[in-house]
Write a structure and sequence with these properties.
The complex is a heterodimer of chains A (281) and B (322).
Chain A: H1 2-13, H2 16-38, H3 71-107, H4 109-124, H5 127-138, H6 142-153, H7 155-168, H8 172-179, H9 184-220, H10 231-238, H11 247-274, H12 276-279
Helix pairs in contact in A: 1-11, 2-3, 2-11, 3-4, 3-6, 3-7, 3-9, 5-6, 6-9, 7-9, 8-9, 9-10, 9-11, 10-11
Chain B: H1 2-10, H2 12-29, H3 34-41, H4 47-57, H5 63-75, E1 81-82, E2 87-88, H6 89-124, H7 129-143, H8 146-160, H9 177-216, H10 219-226, H11 231-243, H12 245-269, H13 274-283, H14 287-315, H15 317-321
Antiparallel strand pairs in B: 1-2
Helix pairs in contact in B: 2-5, 2-14, 6-7, 6-9, 6-12, 7-9, 8-9, 8-12, 9-11, 9-12, 12-13, 12-14, 13-14
The chains are: A mainly alpha (281), B mainly alpha (322).
InterPro entries (chain B): BPD_transp_1_N, MetI-like, MetI-like_sf
Main location (chain B): membrane
Subcellular location (chain B): Cell membrane
């Protein structure tokens, strides 16, 4: 197992873009974890003069917004919100996707047909409109935003899990488990799933990137949780000032872009490292 | 062929039924009664009116009857009434739909043009500086939120350079005849369509590059070259034609996302479409309108998806043969 891990790490490290992405992800996680230590007081509190440009004041390296709040502090706390929502939404999507995909492929027949139609249904609904509808009906809370994003992003995971399960379900080891009288659930999740998991994990990591983009759009529109600092909301708040202080929009946007970029690079790197067959294409 | 088309179109029906049922579930999921929220938000206080509404929405009946009634009314294209606009929901949506469709089509057009060109260029000049630059650009545009890109483009091209208007769809108070009006709309369309389209252009560029490289290695390409066809002829009429298939698949899968993306872009550029309507309705908790947009949006995606499938059928004879 250890040698496998080392082998995997070596293959991942050979991809320079993936390493850069990995470093960026670590940086964002570091900032998110260190936020309360770097900025011990409430980031949404007013600290100084409004609209100080970045790199002008040493106390506020990224400047202040229209109300005089420290942008650096809001970015740091925003990283927490963004990562939390991204990871939880991806987990939600992965759990739904694996359950649907595994059940469809394992049982086949009408179960498969029904579940695939169900998946198609969620692919048809315009996803952002659906997220906004859920948030509008349930209320602007961080939990609801997370669940809503998870609900619109699980379909690719379900399709991939189904495809993986299809190729595994008639293998000898599965037949052996059946012959031993193992229950369906145990075969599905104890025996087949571990073999199907690697590509699904890669996709889940890419779903985090998508979830971050969704969350930013929702809070940009002002429908995120009003009690937490969020990069999207920062852009939304700064929008009215683009004539005088466009940096208020630019800085959090760069943070979103770099985070999504880093997550995508890591996902691609994982994909290459886990599927060496595809790498030389 | 005709039977395939009819069968594909019939598949839309269960999908839409599913969306309607989901809608219904959402209404019942809401904390408190959505009916109360609806009536209080829309300031309906007259008891007689309330009773009438309760009857129209069937709130006094069992859930199964309510569901059946709801399905029946949506089937008759009755999506409810919006007191805010004082008009049936469907009428309001249909009035706003063309602007959104224009935005979506332009964004898709830009995405296809830029994405395919970039992808072909990168694959023809594989592993050169061009390929690297295009891949780098694709990675960045794939990660940038479209609304942010829109704002940054507004700052540069509208505020600083003054080349394009900051927002809206038409210059207020201008009367330039039909042709002038169309030009005016196009002028307003450039920034929002580009901001929305660049993300998809990045996706298409990546897919097109990979797909072209895949096709380049196939035997028939070597045959075409051996026949003495010029390189550009081989690239354009042999490789590209086959490499386009994954793009068509992707286009179908992404229609819903493009529609969702246009909601945000419309909010950024004050584009008067379904997105702005949805945003206002969410803000004012105008639920019949929100749910109406969801149903019609899904219908739009389902129909376009079927159309994409049929295009695919034309492009790839192998599928027809099955």
């Amino acid at each position: 197992m250890l040698s496998l891990t080392i082998d995997f790490a070596r293959r991942f490290a050979r991809n320079r873009a993936a390493l850069v992405g990995f470093a960026l992800v670590i940086l964002v996680i570091g900032v998110a974890l260190a936020a309360p230590w770097l900025f011990p007081r409430n980031p949404l509190r007013i600290v100084g003069k409004p609209e100080i440009w970045p790199f002008v004041s040493s106390r506020y390296p990224l400047g202040t917004d229209s109300l005089g709040r420290d942008i650096a502090a809001m970015i740091a706390y925003g990283a927490r919100t963004t990562l939390l929502i991204g990871v939880c939404a991806s987990l939600t999507a992965t759990i739904i996707g694996i359950s649907v995909g595994a059940t469809a492929a394992y049982f086949g027949g009408w179960v498969d047909e029904l579940l695939m139609r169900f998946t198609e249904l969620f692919q048809t609904i315009p996803n952002l409109i659906f997220v906004l509808t859920i948030v509008a009906i349930l209320g602007q809370k961080i939990e609801y935003v997370t669940i809503a994003v998870g609900i619109v992003t699980w379909t690719p995971i379900a399709r991939l899990t189904r495809a993986e399960f299809m190729s595994l379900r008639d293998r000898e080891f599965v037949q052996a488990c059946r012959a031993m009288g193992m229950g369906n659930l145990r075969i599905m999740f104890g025996e087949i799933l571990p073999n199907a998991l690697p590509p699904v994990i890669v996709l889940s990591s890419l779903v985090i990137a998508g979830a971050v983009l969704f969350e930013s759009a929702v809070s940009f529109l002002g429908l995120g949780d009003p009690n937490v600092s969020s990069w999207g909301r920062l852009i939304g708040d700064g929008r009215t000032l683009i004539r005088s202080s466009w940096y208020i929009c630019a800085v959090p946007g760069l943070a979103i872009m770099l985070t999504v970029l880093a997550l995508n690079l890591v996902g691609d790197g994982l994909n290459d490292a886990l599927n060496p067959k595809l790498r030389d294409r | 062929m005709r039977r395939i088309i009819i069968r594909r179109l019939l598949q839309i029906i269960p999908l839409i039924l599913g969306v309607i049922v989901l809608n219904f579930m959402l209404i019942h999921l809401a904390p408190g009664s959505l009916f109360d929220v609806m009536t209080s938000e829309q300031q309906v206080t007259d008891p007689a009116m309330l009773d009438q509404l309760r009857h129209t929405y069937g709130v006094d009946q069992p859930t199964s009857v309510q569901l059946a009634k709801y399905i029946w009314s949506v089937m008759r294209l009755d999506l409810g009434f919006s007191y805010r606009q004082n008009a049936p929901v469907l009428d309001v949506i249909l009035e706003q739909l063309p602007s959104t469709v224009i935005l979506m089509l332009s964004a898709t057009g830009i995405a296809l043009l830029v994405g395919i060109t970039a992808g072909v260029l990168a694959s023809v000049k594989v592993n050169t500086i061009w390929d690297n630059l295009i891949s780098l650009g694709a990675v960045f545009f794939f990660a940038a939120p479209s609304f942010w890109l829109g704002i940054m483009m507004t700052v540069l091209f509208a505020v600083k350079l003054g080349w394009f208007p900051v927002g809206g769809m038409r210059t207020i108070g201008s009367d330039q005849g039909t042709f002038g009006d169309a030009l005016d709309v196009m002028h307003h369309l450039v920034l929002p369509a580009t901001a929305l389209g660049l993300f998809y252009a990045a996706t298409y560029a990546r897919v097109m590059r990979a797909s072209m490289l895949e096709v380049f290695r196939l035997d028939f390409v070597r045959t075409a070259r051996a026949k003495g066809l010029s390189r550009s002829r081989v690239v354009i009429s042999h490789v590209m034609r086959n490499a386009l298939l994954p793009i068509v698949t992707l286009l179908g899968l992404q229609l819903g996302t493009i529609l969702g993306g246009s909601v945000v872009i419309e909010a950024v550029f004050s584009w008067p479409g379904i997105g702005s309507l949805l945003f206002d309705s969410v803000m004012s908790r105008n639920f019949p309108m929100v749910l109406g947009v969801l149903v019609l949006g899904s219908l739009l995606v389902a129909v376009s998806n079927a159309a994409v499938d049929l295009i695919y059928l034309r492009l790839d004879p192998r599928i027809r043969a099955r």
